[in-house]
Design a protein that fits this description.
Length: 175
């Protein structure tokens, strides 16, 4: 099976599945894509760009002739703050997006259950009843499956950020 055949078979199935969940499932997919882009960007920064920043900050500290004065302490705090700013970029958003995904999943559950009760009130159409339950379950599952790895990654990035700042603080010694 080549890629054209795969996409011609998989794409209609995926869009039908997404349409079954309604606009909330599309919203979950969009927020999830933003979340994972930010996660990949932060890990890329941490693994590829931060070592050069840490080296530059350490070189700036070592270029000073004295490290014991009040001014030297303030410069050290400034260097640590610069590292912390670079490491904390988008971290607040990374902590909020999984919570938004959970709330979107809950919103999908509520809207699906409302459509179920509308069907029960207006007419007892079993197909419409099943569609409402399906929408409720799909959005709940999507919200949970996308939020939980995001929560784990944001907690891991926060832990790594604190560890890296502490490691840099240890490198900028008072000699």
């Amino acid at each position: 099976m080549n890629t054209d055949e795969f996409y011609s078979l998989a794409l209609p199935e995926l869009t039908a599945w997404m349409d079954q969940g309604g606009t909330i499932l599309w919203s979950i997919a969009l927020v999830s894509c933003v979340l994972w882009l930010l996660i990949f960007e932060r890990y890329y920064f941490l693994l590829n760009q931060y070592p050069a920043l840490r080296q530059r900050l350490q070189q700036a500290w070592l270029a000073r002739t004295e490290h014991g004065s009040w001014y030297a302490h303030r410069i050290r705090i400034g260097l640590l703050s610069e590292a912390k700013l670079g490491l904390q970029r988008h971290l607040c958003l990374l902590q909020i997006l999984p919570q938004i995904l959970l709330l979107l999943g809950l919103l999908g559950t509520v809207s699906g259950m409302i459509s179920v009760f509308e069907v029960l009130y207006l007419h007892a159409n079993l197909r419409s009843l099943a569609d409402g339950i399906s929408q409720a379950l799909l959005t709940t599952m999507a919200g949970l499956l996308t939020a939980l790895p995001g929560l784990f990654c944001s907690a891991d990035l926060l832990k790594r950020m604190h560890w890296e700042v502490q490691k840099l603080a240890d490198l900028l010694t008072f000699t």
